[in-house]
Design goal:
Strand content: 5-15%
Structural class: alpha/beta
CATH architecture of the largest domain: 3-Layer(aba) Sandwich
CATH class of the largest domain: Alpha Beta
Largest sheet: 9 strands, mixed
CATH superfamily of the largest domain: Vaccinia Virus protein VP39
CATH topology of the largest domain: Rossmann fold
Number of helices: 20
Number of domains: 4
Shape: globular
Radius of gyration: 26 Å
Length: 467
Amino acid sequence: MSRPSGASRSGRRDRRPAPRRPVLDGARLTAYDVLDAVTSRAAYANLLLPQLLGERDLEQRDAAFATQLTYGTLRARGTLDAVLTGLVDRPLADLDPRVLDLLRLGTYQLLDLRVPAHAAVATTVDLTRAIVGAGASGLVNAVLRRVAAGGDRARWLETLDGEGDDRLALATDHPRWIVQAWREALGDETPDGEAELEAALQADDAAPEVHLVARRVPRAELVEQSGGRPGPWSPYAVRLGGGDPGLVPAVRSGAAAVQDEGSQLAALLLARAPLDGPDAAWLDMCAGPGGKSGLLAAVRPPGVRLTAADRAPHRAELVRRSLRGEEDVEVLVADGRQPPWAPGSFDRVLLDAPCTGLGALRRRPEVRWRRTGDDVPPLAELQAALLERALASVRPGGLVAYVTCSPHTAETVAVVDAAAARDDVEVLPVAPLFPEVPDLSRGRYGQLWPHRHGTDAMFLALLRRTR
């Protein structure tokens, strides 16, 4: 008769220890969960990570490490993949996406954070065993040990092929097409264009400050509440060195909000421009999620009616929340290309056009790898159509502010130049409206940059319909 499993010849059960079940590192598991969500369902890290950190109640040090791991790994994906390509015996696209994200997570720790090899490898192997299985953990262990043997990022970059823009793309964690787009956008206006190009790309890799906008509260009071400091460009901006903006009383009440200082200047462009004739009706044409509408509502002169429109119902709802408590405002669910309002209905129109979002790469690091150059032409076509309708929506003499959170020439200068070629459109220079902001001019237009201004890379243009 056979013995029960685990019994010895004497009938006693073996007392061999059970296999070790690793306690997974909370910071690394959280970072992996965000990477997986970005890969598998196109999630946005800046929205998901705060949610997970709140749910998991990590200690402050672990939460900071999870944040560094998440954003750093997403940002460096191109360089990490270039290293891994030579160490895996199959195309990376053929790997289980979970395994590839785990390899990226471990490689980032070894190359950029200089986490001791034994810690980076062991914790990543433990995660792999728990998430994917024992078979995959052997592959991850072998590959990460080879990464560790190759040294830090600088040593690995020496081994990778690349010159010119290819080298710069690897060194600054950008796709080559974005490097080329930034080169064109910066132009030849600076004495050392190559050095500024690298500075602009590196600024995309730095963690941004949180900016607040004082809408219905004096800025001095918001500074006192938040412990921040006044922003240098917008009279409504406060910059925070740290902390949770959601704990600021004015933010909780809606009297203030989180808004990049560059976005504040985009709204102020429309409000500051001199206008001949009546000034009673303003339109925010692509208003979601409502930050610029909120500031326009706060700074408009008495008697001005503000209309805010967005074609997506859920974004229009966000605009309603942003404008809650404001009088003489209207929120519409409407496509600006087929508007419900009559031509010439407004005195001022803000068109914050849908774009690639390349100007906010420091806030959404995954966008640099999610977008491709093929995304630009259809967006430029949409932008041109919206700008045409925006110009039709203002009366003769009315103003249109065209802004995008992208410096890409095809989404900015090319779109506005085409509209300005009409004989009923006049371009107004942007820089004179912001004399306090240095290095703003991009020809007749304006361009903000993280490395120059500490803001997102917002493009600003101002047009007048002459007849």
